[in-house]
Amino acid sequence: MQGDVSFTFLDRIEEVELNIVDRRWQSALALALTLPDICGGIAFPKIVKHYRDGRVMLDRQKNPTRDVGTQYIRWFDEYAGDYFKLSQSDEKPYICGERCWQLRCEYLHQNKGFLNDENNIRFHLGLNCGMSVCQLESMNIQENGNDIRIDIEQFCLRMCKAAKNYYDKVHLEKDFSLYNKYTSFGFCSGNTKKESCFYYCTGLWQ
Q1: For the segment 111-121, what is each residue's pLDDT rounded down to a tens digit?
Q2: Is the dihedral of CA 203, 204, 205, 206 positive or negative?
Q3: pLDDT tens readout for residues 99-155
Q4: Which of 4, 20, 139, 169 has minimal Cβ neighbours within 10 Å of its Cβ?
């Protein structure tokens, strides 16, 4: 028996919410941080990378290479920022697109404790800790640095709301089905346990 299983964009949001219910905070945060990746690519497909001479960079399939960071930051600032204000009267959200992109890169790829010496930005992750940009009173906190405290549960819930709202607004005009190809898994099984296998579509990950 063999078949493919695709997960939709709404399935991704639901999985973040289920991880919150199950108190699987690392998984919830990791998935939540990917939502602007998806939405940014859908919202701004024309934002692509260029060489210094202006030529568009192409990927292995000869398609324009996404400028993922710029797409991510712009989508967050335009569509998610309002969900990250502590109150409606706040002029700005407590975290901007650029900082969310930094958190995404450090948490998903570098795992270096959220200390960025170049930008002097530190992320503090916790639960029931509130969310703010603050100067923490600690001997270990460098002077003139920005410390961003993130409540994981609140962060994930707000990101899900932003993503759902974006989907509700544009899903009739934007092709969210394109997202399915990034999470297409196959399962097959033979006559014996030794013949059982699991595979994933490596060719779709770019």
Answers
A1: 543 444 556 77
A2: positive
A3: 999 999 989 987 543 444 556 778 888 888 766 665 444 434 444 557 888 999 999
A4: 139
